[in-house]
Amino acid sequence: MSQRITKAVIPAAGLGTRFLPATKAMPKEMLPVVDKPAIQYVVEEAVEAGLDDVLMIIGRNKNALANHFDRVTELEHTLQTKGDESKLSRVMESSALADVHFVRQGDPKGLGHAVLRAQKHVGREPFAVLLGDDLIDERDPLLSRMLEEHDKRDATIIALLEVDPDSIHMYGAAEVEETDDPDVVKVTGLVEKPAREVAPSNLAIIGRYVLKPEIFDVLEHTEPGKGGEIQLTDALLELADDAETTGGVYGVVFRGRRYDTGDKLDYIKAVIQLAADRDDLGPDLRPWLREYAAGLAEG
Predict the structure, then answer these.
(1) CB of 254 closer than 8 Å to CB of 206
(2) Every domain range in the chain assigned CATH 3.90.550.10
(3) Could you list the residue ranges that cross the membrane (predicted)?
(4) Which of 70, 183, 186, 267 gives a 20 to 30 Å CA spacing to 245?
(5) What architecture is domain 7-262?
């Protein structure tokens, strides 16, 4: 019987250089996606899946993250005095979401190193890792399915997405075998950011993982890989190669809606897609978008 998972780790130490100058003084995780910072969507996803103990791995100048998930009594008092219960509820929502902790990564040695920094908090328990660049639509739950597969197989679970083969060089790529479930594959190999001609498949690793504590043992001796960083992909490959001892690695193939906030163009698309789907914004936004697109076509 696998151990119930309650802890989520969110690496958030990156500098966000692709969004400069916006991220000169603001963490990239705090960039708004419609009316909430991107990081709040990620925490909400973890909580919805039953993980209410959240550890963020942060770097310098990330105090805004801690402030966002803390109480702001002065603002709350002002809104309460004005009788603005709607805004007061939204302000208090983030501080009541989860038990949020913070630890600094220190040296920026890659995703594997960031995950390793969670060892003392997590202990010898399985846990989830959620990357903030990937926003998963709440209507298409992914993490809960991954947790179910972990419980079923007592194995490490990663999220996979079919991508255009021309884009596979931007991701870690998985070599896989089929299982009795068309949405679950056994991972037999992993390659970090391969060229199209050598990629084992077009199944890309996206930013959701359910990890067994053995990952820490592996990361402690994982040497820096591509880019001079300690790659989580390399540690996962070692777990996959030692399936008899570790339970192996399986992938859940995600076929739902995912919003990539990792670069400027995809970030803009994510904001538009999420806003267009909202009941309060969509009815006015969608006709405007059609009119704007028609004007571009005519021009």
Answers:
(1) yes
(2) 7-262
(3) none
(4) 183
(5) Alpha-Beta Complex (3.90)
47: β partners: none
Nearest-angstrom CA–CA distance, 59 and 104:
5
**Of 119, 105, 101, 108, which is closest to residue 219 (Cα–Cα)?**
119
Q: Which tens digits make up the pLDDT trace of 59-108?
A: 887 889 999 998 888 888 888 888 888 888 888 888 888 899 999 988 87
List CB contacts of 272: < 8 A, sequence separation 6 or more. Answer: 285, 289
Find the distance separating the first CA and the last CA of the chain, reported in whole Å.
62
Output the six-digit token pair for 244: 């008899």
Q: Contacts from 65-73 at CB under 8 Å and sequence distance 24+?
A: 65/12, 65/27, 65/29, 65/30, 65/39, 65/102, 66/100, 66/102, 68/30, 68/37, 68/39, 68/40, 68/94, 69/43, 69/94, 69/95, 69/97, 69/98, 69/100, 70/95, 71/95
Backbone angles phi, psi at 82, to 5 degrees: -75, -10
- Rounded to an integer, what distance in angstroms lies between the CA atom of residue 181 and that of residue 201? 18
Q: How far is CA 107 from CA 70, 117, 119, 220, in A?
A: 26, 11, 16, 15
Question: 140 — phi, psi (to 5°)?
Answer: -125, 75
Q: Is the pLDDT confidence value at 227 over 80?
A: no
Task: Please report which confidence band the pLDDT of residue 299 belongs to, taking 50, 70 and 90 as the band edges.
Answer: low
253: enclosing H helix or E strand: strand 249-253
Distance, C-alpha 18 to centroid of its chain: 18
Q: Give 97-137 pLDDT, tens digit per residue.
A: 889 999 998 887 899 999 999 999 999 999 999 998 889 99
Three-class secondary structure of residue 16 per DSSP: coil
For 164-174, what is each residue's pLDDT tens digit?
999 999 888 99
From the list 53, 19, 34, 75, the residue with the least C-alpha distance to 126 is: 53
Q: Using CA atoms, how far apart are residues 268 and 258, in angstroms rounded to an integer?
A: 13
